[in-house]
Amino acid sequence: MRDMKFKVWDIKNKCWLKQKGISLSSDGKRVFFYPHTIPSPAIVGKDVIVVFYTGLKDKKRTKEYPKGQEIYEGDILSRRTQATSHLVVKWDRYFAKYHMHGFRLDVHKGFMQGLTAKQAKKHEVIGDIYENKELIK
User: 131 and 79, same structural domain?
Assistant: First the structure.
């Protein structure tokens, strides 16, 4: 069973919220913070964006990530082959699975592939679509 984790992006302040306690309402429309250092509840889509952990880790092996970095929705993955490709992790509601979407660098424009554990181990998280928009231009 995979860990159910998520991160919360503050739309106004353009940063990841680092709170000890964050919970999501059962309808997924409100986020509550504990302790109440941030106005609570925040409205998903208006105040914050919630991204979920895919349950997968990348190929990175460092002191900080000895077993690989966790991959979340909106992460930008890179894989060095003949040409470097950048792919964005997105949830596909129709197929109920995560995909990697290509968006730049000739051969990968418009490319889409399912994100599997095998694929995750071939890629590295290099940023996300919120903090690193320059990587997807």
Answer: yes
> Residue 34 has what DSSP assignment?
E
Beginning with the edge strand found earlier in the chain, give each strand of the sheet holding 84-92 in spatial order.
Answer: 112-114, 97-102, 84-92, 75-80, 124-128
Q: Decide if 1 is inside a domain.
A: no
Amino acid making up residue 48? V
Q: How far apart are CA 15 and CA 47, in angstroms?
A: 12
Q: Do 15 and 39 sit in the same domain of this protein?
A: yes
Q: Is residue 64 part of a domain?
A: yes
DSSP letter at 83 equals S
Q: Are 59 and 69 in contact (CB under 8 A)?
A: no
Q: Does 60 share its domain with 100?
A: yes
- Of the CA atoms within 13 Å of residue 126, those in its CB half-sphere come to 17
Could you tell me the pLDDT band of residue 107, with boundaries at 50, 70 and 90? very low
Residue type (1 letter), 131: E
Average pLDDT over residues 2-10: 81
Q: Give per-residue pLDDT as tens, 28-87.
A: 788 887 766 666 677 777 888 889 899 999 998 889 889 999 999 999 998 876 566 788
